[in-house]
């Protein structure tokens, strides 16, 4: 029974770690056509997040980075116009030109005074917009999570297998205490 509990704990920990990486790879799109969704996923996997440059924009959360969320809407608009993934990525690097100012997302950026993003879309972000994840931090995070998990499992097992006084030893201790009290009274 003990081995089952340990296996269950380890399996649960592994599932928890893996589920985090599966969730990190998901993104939302308003596109419904399968080919358009496929193009969207390809583009958002190749372009980096504006707020967290070490991850693709596909993995960027709306709550954490509204700029990247709006750029995803811009990418959707370009896909609806029939642009391919390679074209969109190339234009993100080299610029979409002045016609990008007609897009409602970019027009809203300009209206709100976010000139850096507007200039990047119109004239290009350069090669820096490409997603090049730095696996050092990812690997370090996974190693720390794994180490913490092992420490927790070790402490759990140590606590469960630590010496617990048996009923017999506690009776012996009580008897010894009783004898020492008698000796004290005799003196």
What does this protein look like?
By secondary structure, this protein is mainly alpha-helical. It has a domain at 34-128. It has helices at residues 2-24, 34-46, 66-80, 85-94, 104-111, 115-123, 135-161, 167-186. Helix 2 runs parallel beside helix 4, helix 4 crosses helix 6 and helix 5 (104-111) runs antiparallel to helix 6 (115-123). Residues 21-25 have low confidence and may be disordered. Possible subunit of a heme lyase. The chain crosses the membrane at residues 137-157. It comes from Leptospira perolatii. This is Cytochrome c-type biogenesis protein. Keywords: Heme, Iron, Membrane, Metal-binding, Signal, Transmembrane, Transmembrane helix.
pLDDT averaged over residues: 81
Radius of gyration: 30 Å
> Helical proportion?
55-70%
Strand content: under 5%
In whole angstroms, how far apart are the ends? 53 Å
Biggest sheet, in brief?
Answer: none
Which blocks of ≥5 consecutive residues have pLDDT under 50? 21-25
Transmembrane segments: 137-157
Keywords: Heme, Iron, Membrane, Metal-binding, Signal, Transmembrane, Transmembrane helix
Function: Possible subunit of a heme lyase.
Domain CcmH/CycL/Ccl2/NrfF N-terminal: 15-107
């Amino acid at each position: 029974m003990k081995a089952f509990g340990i296996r269950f704990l380890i399996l649960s920990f592994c599932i928890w770690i893996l589920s985090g990486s599966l969730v990190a790879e998901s993104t939302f799109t308003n596109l419904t056509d399968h080919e358009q969704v496929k193009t969207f996923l390809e583009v958002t996997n190749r372009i980096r997040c504006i707020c967290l440059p070490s991850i693709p924009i596909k993995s960027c959360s709306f709550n954490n980075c509204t700029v990247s969320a709006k750029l995803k809407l811009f990418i959707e608009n370009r896909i609806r116009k029939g642009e391919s993934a390679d074209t969109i990525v190339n234009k993100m690097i080299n610029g979409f030109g002045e016609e990008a100012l007609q897009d409602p997302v970019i027009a809203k950026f300009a209206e709100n005074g976010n000139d850096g993003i507007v200039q990047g879309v119109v004239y290009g972000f350069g090669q820096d917009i490409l997603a090049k994840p730095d696996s050092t931090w990812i690997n370090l995070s996974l190693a720390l999570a794994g180490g913490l998990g092992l420490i927790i499992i070790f402490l759990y097992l140590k606590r469960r297998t630590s010496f617990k006084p048996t009923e017999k030893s506690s009776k012996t201790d009580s008897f010894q205490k009783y004898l020492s009290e008698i000796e004290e009274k005799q003196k």
